[in-house]
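tool=predict chain=A
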Amino acid sequence: MTDTISSLPPRPTDAPAPARGKLGVLLPGMGAVASTFMAGVMLARRGLGAPIGSLAELGTLEGGARVREAVPLAGLDDLVFGGWDLFDESALDAALTADVLSARHLEPIRDELAAVRPMKAVFFPEFVKRLRGEHVKTARSKRDLAEETRADVRRFLRDNDLERAVAVWCGSTEAWREPAPCHRSLEAFERGLDESDPAISPSQIYAWACLMEGVPYANGAPHMTVSCPALVELAHARGVPVAGSDFKTGQTLMKTILAPGLKARMLGVRGWFSTNILGNRDGEVLDDPESFRSKEVSKLGVLDHILEPELHPDLYGDLYHKVRINYYPPRGDRKEGWDNIDLRGWLGYDMQVKIDFLCRDSILAAPLVLDLALFLDLAQRAGERGMQEWLSFYFKSPIAPPGVRPEHDLFRQHQTLLATLGRWAAAPARLEAAE
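tool=predict ok
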């Protein structure tokens, strides 16, 4: 059977319910990305910084209506932060260690950041070999770890007087693993928890715990989490939306911008060589071949999906695509991505494009965390459950149902995102019971 192209699924006839009260944002992994995200929100709600890069905050729908005004999103003042980490340091300590933000941005929110401390993490060293777990749970079985994580979620909600929350994975990339029998169904997965199946990763335990507690979950890394059948089944059973995988930030963002343009002009691509240098914790983790393999799979799939070599074999059938990531500590969070693109034009003449993208990894990721938190909460209030294909805009490896080919073209993804928001904006208002 030929895969179908992902298309906009039917949406509810009612608009999402209003965003009432506070919204918890749970972050598995409270390092550079998470601390930059939290600090940015804290600054923005004080008027000390702009949420640049956030479509939820700055974007507009067709006709010019602001996204924030058109659909009932949670306000920045309503966000309450929590999460888990391998290291027992506050969000302030994490921000200072990451060295992404300057003192002029950290000083005004020093006390607020310092008050956010992580819960103990779920950690299996075989999934992240380059990091050591210092602040971790010690339960014997994976079932016990999962139940402890559920208890964390309930306690976070109770202690902060919250009725709803979302979770966005901001931790390191786990080692590459092929799907195992325990991932095929919810029954098999829960049996795997009981048996401490070695194929169940920390991220899957967080996702299971969050979904069991009715908390939407987005996977910001390339490893398999909410894309496996077992957790998709759980999301449907619990009526919870999920999204993933792998934040689309630096080099892959450039590919999804450029490749559709080259294809639109019917220019051939013979080769695309990409290499990065990165010195933060993510770079250290990706220095391990098994973790890099997860990232490589995520990055390599983008061009094939966009260029469709099976439809245009003369232009893209012999495309050679190579990706490299190099750990280089002096660069820190200031990632540099080099691309060499070998093109073929009129009469087969060769041309080249060179790109040197000097970006900031966490600065690009932080607005994605914000948008995913706000939009997943919106989706749940609209009665959505399971895979949210309309959020593919934010991911390198967007998840899609079996037999459906995920869309990678950034501009098509953007159209689908805005169309979904536009449908909700135009839907009849949901009737609320009199208060």
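The CA atoms of residues 159 and 309 lie 53 Å apart. The first strand starts at residue 4 and ends at 5.
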